[in-house]
Amino acid sequence: MSPRARVAPVPPAFTVAEVLRVGLPDYTREHHLPPQHWRVLRAIMACRTPQLGGHLYQCGNCAEQKFVPHSCRNRHCPTCQGANGYAWMQEQADLLLPIPYFHIVFTLPHALNPLIRQNPSACYDLLFASASKTLLEFGRRELEAQLGVTSVLHTWSQSLMGHYHLHCIVTGGGLREDGSWASTPPHWLFPVHALSAMFRGKFRAGLLRLYQDGALEFHGQQKAFEAPTAFAEFLHEATHKK
Q: Which of 6, 47, 93, 169 could cysteine-pair with 72, CB 3.0–4.6 Å?
C-alpha cells in the first residue's frame, strides 16, 4: 500500500485557552470544579503568555530579535500536545488496511452525568469495556473473526455540556482463527438496535457491579441515590430507554 500524503493541520480560529479565558469565569459561578481540574485549566490559560515568561533570541548577523514564550507542557493542553496528536493521527493512518471502516458511537444517557462526574475513572473504564466487548462479541458471533477497534473518549458536546460517549473506528471485517479474512459489505457492519441492546445491558450490569462492590462515590445531591432501593430505581430510570 502506497504511503498517504501528509497534509499539515490548519490552525484553529480560536484556541482552547482563549475560549477558557472568556467563558470560564461565568461557568465557575454555577459549577464546582475539583482541584486537579483547576490545575489543568490554569496551565492551559497560562500557556505561551507572559505569565510563564520565555526566551529572547537574537540573530548574530542582523541582530533581529525573536521572543519565544514558554509553554505549559501540560499533557492536556491542545496547544502543547497538538504536534504529538497530529503525529499520532498520521501513525494511525499509516496502519489503515485497504478495507471499509465503520464509525460507531456509544453514548451514555445524560441522567448518568452527575454520577459519572463523581466517578470518572470507574465509569470511563466501564464505558470502554462495555463498548469493546459488545463489538468484539458481535465480530465473533456474526463473522467468527477478531475485529480491530480504535476508541476515543469524548466527555462533552459541541455546546461544551456534559455528553459522555465513545467514538469507535471499527474494521469492516476481521481475522479468523485460521488466519483468513472475514469481510463485511462496504456499507453494513452490524444491526444498530442489536448493538445498542447489548451495550446497554453490559453497561447497566457493570454499573450495578461497581455499586455492589462499593466502588462508586455519592456526594451532594447524588447522596440520595446511595441507598440500595434508591440506586436501583435511579439505574432503571437512567438506562431503560433505547
A: 47
